[in-house]
Amino acid sequence: MTGRWRLWVRRAAAVGALALTTTSVGAAPPQAARVPGPAPTLTPIKHLVVIFQENNSFDHYFGTYPQATNPPGEPPFVARPGTPSVNGLTEALLTANPNLANPQRLDRADEVVCDQNHDYDPEQRAWDGGLLDRFVQETSGSATGGVTGADCTTPLPDHLNDQATNKLVMDYYDGNTVTALWNYAQHFTLLDNSFGTTFGPSTPGAINLVSGDTFHALAPPGSTAISVTAGVTTSADIRAGTLIGDPDPAFDDCSGSGTAYFTNTNIGDLLNARGITWGWFQGGFTPTGQDPSGKAICGSSHVNIGGASETDYSPHHEPFQYYASTANPHHLPPSSVAMIGHTDQANHQYDLRSFYAALATGHLPAVTFLKAARYQDGHPGNSSPLDEQHFLVTVLNALQASPEWAATAVIIAYDDSDGWYDHVSGPIVNQSSDLPEDRCGTTAPGQPDDRCGYGPRLPLLVISPFAKANYVDHQLTDQTSILRFIEDNWGLGRIGGLSFDRLAGSLGDAFAFGGPANPRLFLDPASGEPLH
User: Between the N and C ends of the chain, which has fewer C-beta atoms within 10 Å?
Assistant: First the structure.
């Protein structure tokens, strides 16, 4: 380790009042005192599990809910009597859309599709000041390039040719493909007025989930993360101190050369201060080896439903690795199953296998964040709705079969929209004059640029014995509403500062405490249909 790197690590720890005080980013933090029994909570919920998936807008998954096409050979979906409507795709939007193409239904055979453009600036241009009429020109993957995974210039293997003609960005799935999600909505609560806290890709969404603040972003010595001035509309990672791109976390052996870190507070810091158990569990976090310098190598992979081999671990999807206080740079395992959720050498960062071990032995933390391996995270280009369904159903079946389920709530949320079309514009609660066209208003005095929000509308579901059944929650929420629920339920106080938690709407309308428990729902991971 160079002297410059030691100085940077000391500076990061001092500025953020963080837990690591040695010169080595791999040093284990001190062990925290064990908490005797569940921590007191505001609600009967003793375990919150947040499943944080990838890159889908609300209309892309729920635009025609609860009406499915039900073609032969696909899992049928018929809505329960009394199913409430959502703010979805109307006949006018389907046949006379203000964009350059009308939305079309994607079939179950069309689930391996390309990634769209979901950078901070193009998403704002597609939003077009609330007109929502420039998705084909601005966020279509084949129009803008920079695509990962499936080739956007190759037509889909069916009657649609939208992938080759820039129109795929407008299209949507229904309950014959995202069958499990529609069935969860039938039995629990779906929110149709929930938004990304800001515009932009995966990492800003992940940072908003855990801190509500994408400002305070810094690039360590030697990082190739790009820093540009306001007004430049090309892709960038850090702009004037605000994270708008997808650099890897600085405190992670498996990161590439373009990295960033934060010195502000995250929800893990608040939970640690109160001695409340918690953890982030991500597919592929366990190293497959070490390089000659001793750094961890994250080399595990799986084959997705399209036959492509995908590396499991994505560093820029792991938000707590951006903070020295909550990072596990060398991907060390927990010292024991009993210590999962407590502070030891793993520092609350784990592989998904540790989640299943903790669940099976009665050590589920109070607050749990789950991140699928890349082939199951729902991200177009490396995953698909059917790959994602396997992950979601497997996790939820296991949770519902556990003794902890009676006091558990699960939130399924998404990091960003992938640029997919959605017809609803959220309120701009934070203006930012970061584009020449000034679509997002004027930055308030003393506030940083490049935090325009709310961003695109995203799916959000609440699944719990306490969730309202077959209910659509229309209350205004965003990604930091999850953060605020954790703060309130465990009495943590606010992160404060520039965090959007101060503006977040409540998730309370999704719950009905005091009534009979909402029954369990076990689904088939392949079809998404209820098991009988």
Answer: C
What's the CA gap between 191 and 457, in Å, rounded? 10
Residue 470: partners with Cβ closer than 8 Å, 6 or more residues away: 80, 82, 83, 84, 185, 186, 187, 188
Neighbours of 8 (CB within 10 A): 18
pLDDT (tens digit, 9 = 90+) per residue, 189-224? Answer: 999 999 999 999 999 999 999 999 999 999 988 777
Strand order in the sheet with 248-249: 217-218, 259-262, 248-249
Contact 453, 198 (CB under 8 A): yes
Spatial separation of the C-alpha atoms in residues 85 and 98, rounded to whole Å: 23
Q: Which domains are seen in the chain, by residue range? A: 3-24+42-510 (3.40.720.10)
Q: From CA 479, how far away is CA 473, in angstroms rounded?
A: 15
The residue written with tokens 């995974």 in the block is 149
E strands in 283-407: 289-290, 296-297, 301-303, 309-311, 349-351, 367-371
Q: H/E element holding 121?
A: helix 120-127
Nearest to 249 by CA among 12, 32, 6, 499: 12
Mean pLDDT of 377-405: 97
Measured CA to CA, the distance from residue 448 to residue 241 in angstroms comes to 8
CA distance 247 to 415: 15
pLDDT class of 166 with cuts at 50, 70, 90: confident
